[in-house]
């Protein structure tokens, strides 16, 4: 899973049916120190009620998609947790 | 899913059968601000009627492929939505 | 799927059985403009009779592997189409 | 699998149920020489009792997720081994 | 699949059971010209008796894992062939 910051949301009226009713959030990959990490911003489906500015963990691929009941096609990035704190050694 | 801009289409007469009848679009990964993002241009199968210049969201891997009925081999990038707007915090 | 140029082939006598009889091509990821794209050269199994110098589209992962009947283990990149032309807006 | 150093842990009270009870570790991809490698830090589920500062190997995707019994959705990076030594030629 | 050079092996006494008895090799992604390619060194399970210094092809993900009988969790990179020669156009 990767660390990311929620930086907004995407309004996507024309989409495949399995994305209907899903919150499509804009996320920016970050490092544990909070800096922007290598890699473009992504669109991830929210599964935990994440809001703007929150630090989250995002899962990818089949592991992410399978959180949602069928139909779940077209989902390959899901926000699966909201980070409270990071304990760095 | 990643954000991308549709920059054209690919004419691919010689292809595996499961790609027959599919619209093969050229997409360029972009950031939420609209700049070209890290990562090469890709070929994605259109699932929502996306046209040139439109901002779209692209799903990858099995999650993408499974949008299409079998035979759907060889499909690992699918345009699953056309972005109307991005609300950035 | 990504765009690539076929730049050669790989002779791999010692390999897992499911790769026997498969044409292992050397491909270089390229942009729509034909320049070398970010990302290393890859080895992809040919499924459409692609030859040296041709511009192709390559699928990855399970979506690629499933084009071949079992046994198809160890196959995660497949040339699934030969590009005739790219229409860029 | 990639090499990584455990650099801490993530406290994620609000998460999808399948992550409950899982140790969420912060890992930094490294080279065989121990330098930080290309690629952002990640969050990986521990499967072998890895602690801070240890060098580990991390598996990704479905291969990683399937180590855990269902429900295992949302898991796409797992620490699957603690490195004792690396024999470099 | 990607090209790599075997640069050593990893001694990983504490690991998940499905990795027991598997040869864990250190591989460095290379270009067809033999230079180090973009991307960190990886740990790959050997399936063809590859030794130090040899040029190999590595498969990733489910396609790689499925070469091994169950239990095969935690395996997402497998050496599936030893390159004899590369014919570059």
UniProtKB/TrEMBL annotation, chains A, B, C, D, E:
PROSITE patterns: BMV. It holds the Pfam family EutN_CcmL. The keyword Ubl conjugation does not apply. It comes from the Bacteria. It is found in: Bacterial microcompartment. Keywords: Bacterial microcompartment. Its main location: other. This is EutN/CcmL family microcompartment protein. It comes from Photobacterium pectinilyticum.
């Amino acid at each position: 899973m990767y660390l990311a910051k929620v930086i907004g949301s995407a309004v996507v009226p024309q989409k495949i049916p399995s994305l209907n009713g899903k919150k499509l959030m804009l996320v920016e990959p970050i490092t544990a120190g909070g800096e922007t990490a290598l890699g473009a911003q992504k669109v991830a489906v929210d599964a935990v009620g994440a809001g703007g500015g929150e630090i989250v963990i995002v899962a990818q691929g089949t592991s992410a998609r399978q959180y949602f009941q069928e139909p779940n096609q077209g989902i390959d990035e899901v926000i699966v947790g909201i980070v409270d704190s990071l304990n760095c050694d």
